[in-house]
Amino acid sequence: MKISTVLMGKYNLYKIHNSNATSYSCGLTLEKISFSLNKKINNPGRLETIYNKNDKMIAIDYAHTPDAFDNVLSTIVNLKYKNI
């Protein structure tokens, strides 16, 4: 199944895999799962990216636990943004 998501980071990939498996085991078809995952989403404060007037990327995240900080920071370090 092909999906496209705006969610970044390995931790989100793991969450997507887990939700796929759970949804499928509960009887949802792959078509329904794929349709839901391919919807555009707006998730404010969850590794949300904006650009300042100098076109520099700013990442906003509501991380509030050590694990959340590790996940967000490792994702940002491993991404290649323009003009950084």
Question: How would you sum up this structure, described in words?
Answer:
By secondary structure, the chain is mainly alpha-helical. Helices cover 44% and strands 10% of the residues. It has a two-stranded antiparallel sheet. A hairpin with a 5-residue loop joins β1 and β2 (57-60). It is globular and about 45 Å long. The protein starts with 9 loop residues before the first helix and ends in a 6-residue tail after the last helix. The mean pLDDT is 84.
Give a brief outline of the structure.
By secondary structure, the chain is mostly helical. Helix content is 44%, strand content 10%. A hairpin with a 5-residue loop joins strand 1 and strand 2 (57-60).
Looking at this protein, list some descriptive labels.
mainly alpha, two-stranded antiparallel ribbon, 84 residues, 3 helices, 2 strands
Task: Give the topology.
Layout (H helix, E strand, L loop, with lengths): L9 H16 L4 H8 L10 E4 L5 E4 L5 H13 L6
Antiparallel strand pairs: 1-2
* Residues in β-strands, percent: 5-15%
Form type: globular
- Mean of residue pLDDT? 84
Written as H for each helix and E for each strand, in order along the chain, the element string is: HHEEH
Contiguous runs where pLDDT drops below 50 for at least 5 residues: none
